Amino acid sequence: MKISFHGAAREVTGSCHLVQSGELKLLLDCGLIQGGKERHERNREPFDFDASELTHVVLSHAHIDHSGRLPLLCRAGFTGPILTTPATADLCRILLEDSAHIHEEDARWKIKRLRKKGLDTEWVKPLYTRADAQAALERLVPVEFGEEHDLGPGGSLRLTKAGHILGAAIVELELCEDDRSRRVAFSGDLGVDGARLLGGAESIQRPDYLLIESTYGNRSRSAEEDRTQSLLRVIERTVDRGGKVLIPSFAVGRTQAILARINDLVEAGKLAGLDVWVDSPMATEATSVFARHPESYSDAARKIMRCGDEPLEFPGLHFTQSVEESIELNHSTEPGVIVSASGMCTAGRIKHHLLHHLGDARNTVLFVGYQARGSLGRAIQSGTSPVRIFGEWIAAQADVETIQGFSAHADREELLSWFEQLGGVPRKTFIVHGEEEASLAFAESLQEGFGADVEVPQRTQEFDLD
Ligand SMILES: [Zn+2]
Ligand SMILES: [Zn+2]
Element (H or E) spanning 276, and its range? Predict the structure, then answer.
C-alpha cells in the first residue's frame, strides 16, 4: 500500500493524491492549480501517473482547486468512475462548465490579440473545452453520505459531511492488501463550526493514516463580530437613506451563506419590505442546487426547515433571469440589496452595477470575501477613487464596508478540535492543502499537542502505508 502526493503539497491549490492498494489505484481529487500565470501553466503538464491505469477517482467537493483537472484526466485516458456526493455532482455541472467556458474565452482573447500583432496563433489552445468537461461529468457516480460503497476487491469507501461547501465530504477508505487492512482518511476541506447552512465538519473514527488540510493551519479567527448583526446594520443604514447595498459575491457558496443570513433577519421580523435581488445566472442555478440538497445541511439548519422555513426563500427575494432584467435593476431607484458575481468584481454583472451605483453616496458596496491584489474589488475596498470601469472613470462616492469571517475554512482551533475528536492519533498524519508556512506550523501544533507523527509531503513524494 502506498500514497503519493501530486498537488496541494506545500501549496493550497491543485489537490491530487494517489492511493494504491492491491488492484486499486485511487485518485483523491484532481484539482486545478491556481494563483498566477506560472502556477497556471503547470496545469498543462502531463500527470505524474498513467491516468488510464487509475481505477477510481474520489472527489471531496466541487471547488475547482479540487475538481478542475478532471476534464484533463479523462482526456489523458481515465475511464473509471468519479465517486462523489450527489450535491457535489450537481455543483460540478455548474463549476466545470464555467471553468471550461473561461478557458475557451481566454484562448479566444489570446488569439485575437496575437492576430492583431500578425503573430502565429496555431499553438493557442484552451486548457480544456466544454466538450472535455462534459466527458468528465459523464463519469460522475453519486455516493450518498454515510453509505458504505464497495470499490471492488480490496476496498470500500464512505463519505462524511465536511461542512465547507454544499456536498463537501471527508473521504474514508477501508483498504485490504494481502492480509493487511488499513483505514485511510482524507479530510478534504473542513468547514466552519456553526456555519448557518452547513455547520462544521462531522467527526470520524481514528484512521491509520490521515490526510488533513491546513489552509488556516496557522490562523485563528479573531473574536469576530456577529456577522448577521453587521449585515443588518449595513443594510438598514443604506436602505434608510434610500440607497442600495451591492454585495459582490462568489456565485457558489458565499451567495447562499449571505442569503441564509438575510433570511434569518427577515424571518425575525427585521428589514420589513426589503427587496433582495440575486443577479447572477450562476448564483441562481447554484441556489437551486442548494435547495435540492438539504441532506447536505447541518442538523440545526434542517431543524429550522422542519418548522417550515426554507433557508433560501423569503418574501422580497428575487432572482433576475434575463440581461434586460439586470439592466432594469441598474436604472431602478428603489432601495434594496443586489447580490451579484464575480466576487472580486473582475467580471460579470456586478461590474455594471458598480458602474451605475458607485458614484452615488446613498449606496453601499459591501465586501464579504477576499479581494485579491490587482482586482477592481481590492481597489474599491482600499478606497481608490476614481476607479475605471468599462473604460469610464467613476468617482467612488458610495460607502464601502467589509464583513470578515465568511470564509468556509476551519481555522487552527477548529482543525485541532476536529483532530482531537478522532479519539486517538493516526500512525501517520500527512498535512496538505496549505501554504508551506501554514502546513509546517500546523504540523508542529499536532506534534506538540498530540505527539502525532506528521509529514508535510513534497510534490511527487511517495510513502508506504505499512
Ligand atoms: Zn474548498
Ligand atoms: Zn480547497
Answer: strand 276-278
Q: Take residue 436 and report the three cell numbers written for it.
A: 508551506
Q: Which ligand is nearest to the CA of 162?
A: 1
Q: In this structure, which CATH number among 3.60.15.10, 3.40.30.10, 3.30.310.50, 3.30.9.10 belongs to the domain 2-219+408-464?
A: 3.60.15.10
Whether domain 227-402 has CATH 3.40.50.10890: yes
pLDDT tens profile 415-459: 999 999 999 999 999 999 999 999 999 999 999 999 999 999 999
Å from CA of 156 to ligand 1 middle: 24
Domains 2-219+408-464 and 227-402 share a fold: no
- Rounded to whole angstroms, the maximal C-alpha distance in the chain is 72
Per-domain residue ranges for the chain?
A: 2-219+408-464, 227-402
Kindly give the distance from the C-alpha atom of residue 164 to the centroid of ligand 1, in angstroms, as a whole number.
Answer: 7
- In whole angstroms, what is the distance from residue 143 CA to residue 60 CA? 11
Residue 124, judged by CB atoms within 10 A of its CB (0-12, 13-18, 19+), counts as middle
pTM, 2 dp: 0.91
Instruction: Give the integer Cα–Cα distance in Å for 53 and 441.
Output: 36
